[in-house]
Amino acid sequence: MALHTSRIVDLETQMAEVRVQINTQHQDLKEAISALAASTKDNINALAASITCRWEKSSVQSPPRADAGTFDEPQHFRHQQRHS
């Protein structure tokens, strides 16, 4: 019976050690996910700022042409009509 009790204590000790490892890994994983989320947010914000800046520069440097057409009547469509 003493051997059986000793084995139970050993298993309980091992389970406690595994719980500590799981909790530590869980905390490490939560921290890694938080860091990844922050980095992703920063990258998205930087990309959005870059796109906005490029769009603003292109719209300032290239005013719309008078013959550029509209969304409803693209330039290539009008070009095809002229040659028909």
From TrEMBL:
Region called Disordered, residue ranges: 56-84
One MF term in the entry's GO annotations: metal ion binding
InterPro entries associated with the record: HMA_dom
Name of protein: Uncharacterized protein
Domain of life: Eukaryota
